[in-house]
Amino acid sequence: MELIPGNIQAYAERFTSPESDLLKQVAADTYAHHKEAHMLSGHLQGRFLAMVSRLVAPQYILEVGTFTGYSALCLAEGLRADGQLHTIELREQEVNTARHYFEASAYSHQIVQHTGEAGSVIPSLPFTWDLVFIDADKPGYINYYELVLPRLRKGGLVIADNVLFHGQVLEEPVTGKSAKAIQAFNDHVLKDNRVDRVLLTLRDGVLLLQKNR
């Protein structure tokens, strides 16, 4: 299901700040060489992530799911001068691809890559997070959320991607492993009084959560 008509998407991008040359390269290379290029955040969502990060001015960012590095580079734009972004990716090929772009960026000394299962890596990171971006395997969302929330500062943000999951969350009943997992996650945070939330119809759905206690 196309959630946002192509002409509306193009119009929105027209009135959005442009990507850097490096981000354009990441996007072009990903679409040219990766069979799952649709997973890339892209121009509009990337500028949203960058703006949120600049508003937060985070000391520590956690990204769960690196892919080819586009979203990490966007999030890194808001880091404090001595801040760090920790990004976790399971697939070694993606880790290597993203490293190439990170090393070409102005944030090479601030981005720390971790390879492995996010459920194992997250507890090993001894930081208080200011901003967390969850964009990994959908059945893991609830677990990742519960792992990071205790380490998120009050007022800190969690951004969860793909929370409309191609519109499949509207099906009755919801079918498919990932769609069911996303619906379960959405229901989970709906009942969580530790956060305030807004679900944005940006790209494939973005859930913005702010810790309130």
Please, how many helices?
8
* CATH architect. name: 3-Layer(aba) Sandwich
- Please report the distance between the alpha carbons of the first and last residues: 37 Å
The Rg value, from CA coordinates, equals: 16 Å
Tell me about the largest β-sheet.
7 strands, mixed
Identify the quaternary structure here: single chain
* Total individual domains: 1
Name the shape in a single word. Answer: globular
CATH topology: Rossmann fold
What name goes with the CATH superfamily?
Answer: Vaccinia Virus protein VP39
- Average pLDDT works out at 97
Walk across the major sheet and give the strand order. Answer: 3-2-1-4-5-7-6
- Top-tier CATH class: Alpha Beta
N-to-C series of helices and strands: HHHEHEHEHEHEHEE
Low-confidence stretches: none
Percent in helix? 25-40%
Could you say which structural class the secondary elements and strand pairing correspond to?
alpha/beta
Let me know the number of strands. Answer: 7
Strand content: 15-25%
